[in-house]
Amino acid sequence: MVNLTDNRVSIVIPCYNEEAVIAESIRRLLCVCEGGGLVNVELIFVDDGSRDRTRELLRGFADKDSRIKVIGFARNFGHQIAVTAGIDAARGDAVVLIDADLQDPPEVILEMIEKWREGYDVVYGTRTERPGESAFKLATARGFYRVLNKLSDIPIPLDTGDFRLLSRAVADVLRAMPERDRFLRGMVSWVGFRQIALPYKRAERYAGESKYPLRKMLPFAIDGILSFSTKPLQVSIGLGMISATIALIGIVYAIALRLFTNIWVEGWTALMIAVLFLGGAQLLSVGIVGEYIGRIYNEMKQRPMYVADEYIGFTKKEPTFSRTSERMVP
Ligand code: UDP
Ligand code: MG
């Protein structure tokens, strides 16, 4: 077994209404750390504006154990932003991202650390099994990753979540990436360095229910695609070409009939179809362009990415607002 005592490891755990799992999650994580000889470890819990007793419980644990630190958000900012805040605050030589619900087995962290000690900068977990998830979620997730890879210029590994280990170098690059619409698993692929997959069996949620209903999954998927590809912008060119070709065929056909026969094209059906098709194509194209413009607007506002109203257990006083533009200057 490698000596792990001298490396500092940060574990980032985003929590949103996780009162039912927090205690067990902490128990399992600390158990793994102690079993694996990780002495120099910090558990950074990011409370993403929970409305249950999550914050209160976390405060209690942080008071008793100096390894436990808490960042409390002023409202719910979403999982990706919560993880970002954790990475910003982490001081470890390695930063591990893991969900609070124990779907990602904490024991796998030790395997990740071993790979990191071998020299890898990113060790990402790939799910070989996902018990307890609906067939719908599995099918949409599978379809999504395939579409994303078709569209994106950088390959993003299939069937990976955010359960992963990042070296200090990668964490620093991520900290310097200012985009507000964050799709971390894509951003980590973009960074490069030495990356390796680590297959693991995903468990069922320990308690509580998924905080990622379809209503949140869909914007997340759109974020993923729009942040990593400008190909959707070309959809309008494709649609335009298709409709122009159809129109051209129609025109030639109508003229030919008029000139060479004594019947001619009549009826409003063809007209309606053409109008509806063109209208649809135009709306779709404008919508896609609008999505990108909305994103430009969002970035341009330069708002802080998150607002934290509480930092517990950090030695240096952390700024209440993080990721304002001046922090981006190295
Ligand atoms: N989460 C969060 N903010 C949110 C939604 C989720 O911090 O707005 C956390 C949640 O507490 C959990 C992790 O992100 O630790 C993954 O969420 P969940 O398990 O509900 O998603 P699923 O595994 O069903 O995709
Ligand atoms: Mg989960």
Question: Topology, pairings included?
Answer:
Blueprint: E1 9-15, H1 22-35, E2 41-47, H2 54-64, E3 68-73, H3 79-89, E4 94-97, H4 108-117, E5 122-129, H5 135-151, E6 160-167, H6 168-175, H7 184-191, E7 195-201, H8 214-228, H9 235-260, H10 268-300, E8 306-312, E9 321-322, H11 325-328
Parallel strand pairs: 1-2, 1-4, 2-3, 5-7
Antiparallel strand pairs: 3-8, 4-6, 5-6, 8-9
Helix pairs in contact: 5-8, 9-10
Bound molecules: uridine-5'-diphosphate and magnesium ion.
Fraction of residues in helices? 40-55%
CATH class of the largest domain: Alpha Beta
Question: How many helix segments?
Answer: 11
Distance between the termini: 37 Å
Known CATH architecture of the largest domain: Alpha-Beta Complex
Number of strands: 9
Q: Using the alpha-carbon principal axes, give the shape.
A: elongated
Encode the helix/strand succession as letters. EHEHEHEHEHEHHEHHHEEH
Secondary structural class = alpha/beta
Unreliable stretches covering 5 or more consecutive residues: 324-330
Mean model confidence by pLDDT: 84
In CATH, the topology of the largest domain is named Spore Coat Polysaccharide Biosynthesis Protein SpsA, Chain A
Strand content: 15-25%
Domains counted in the coordinates: how many?
2
